[in-house]
Amino acid sequence: MRLPSILACLGFAALSWLTLPATAQKSKSIARQPMTSAQLMGNFPASTTVAPAAAPAPLPKLLSLGEQNVIGSYHLGVGFQKTTHLIFPYAVTYVDLGNAGIIADKAQGAENIVKLKANQPNFPQTNMTVVTADGRLYSFLIDYEQDPRVLNYNLTTGAGDASPVLPMVLFSNLSMTQAEMENYSRIVLKKKKMLRTKEVKDDITLALPGMYTQDDLFFLPLHLFNQSNINYDVDFIKFYIRDRKLAKRTAIQESEIAPIFVYNATQRTIPGPGGIDQVYVLRKFTIPDDKNLVVEMFERGGGRHLTFDVTNEDILEARKLKR
User: Fold this and answer.
1) pLDDT for position 246
2) Which residue of 28, 37, 190, 295 is 20 to 30 Å from 307, comparing CA positions?
3) Distance between CA atoms of residues 117 and 95, nearest Å
4) Do 100 and 217 belong to one domain?
5) Is the four-CA dihedral 121, 126, 127, 128 of positive or negative sign?
6) 271 occurs within a structural domain
7) CA separation, residue 169 to residues 2, 17, 133, 155, 258 (Å)
8) Residue span of the structural domain in which 129 resides
9) How far is Cα 219 from Cα 239, in angstroms, rounded to an integer?
10) What b/e string do you get for 179-190 counting C-beta neighbours within 10 Å, with b at 16 or more?
């Protein structure tokens, strides 16, 4: 009696198998596949792990530039047959040209003059950047001009339009950075004023309280005092070497010494009444006994000009600054 029951069960199972969908039959057939010998020994393939997607790199932070960040440019026209000269208030320490259409160089023997001309006719518009020793940057847009109407530009009166550059600039052929010159200048101004020489005219005083030296540099503090009620606008202060005694009908021989750095250079107006202090840094030098160092200050738009002489004896008594 058992045999018919078993056969009936087998027949029902076969009928169930035939009524399953094809996908289920396939999956079951796969599941019923015999195990390999490696699987029987327990060696199953390692599961594959998918690495997580890398996080996108953060976008750089962009700063916006406003009108206060823009430095204006002077426009110049230069020619191929003529040389243009630019006179800066202080020694030129850096010049960069936009392309080879122009050539530029410092004038021989003059640290603050740049000569400029076209290297080829009809060059495309280019630019030039100049940095001076007082830490100011000048920008120029330059076009070709066959017959330039202006050949010489005096930029000593427009220094206020330039912009300061960052400190810690190491000037060429100098043993001192701008930051060090600023520090020594502050030390000089704190020292007791021991009057060397001065000139007083029209209630304006131009005085040299002392002379100091460090490494290959001179530090000359200048005290500018105004006792009048009218402001004094400084046009320029210059230093040059001149013969002490000049014979009649003899041409004046002057050799200008351009400062390489000026402390408090932005102070260009002596209030009335009031005063300002500045320090001018010059390359170290000596002069013959028959010559003087002349210090000259001119008023912008006025006639109150002051001058005094410094002898070689005064220069040799310059006091050494301590580090």
Assistant:
1) 61
2) 190
3) 14
4) no
5) negative
6) yes
7) 109, 91, 10, 22, 18
8) 71-164
9) 13
10) ebbbebbeebbe
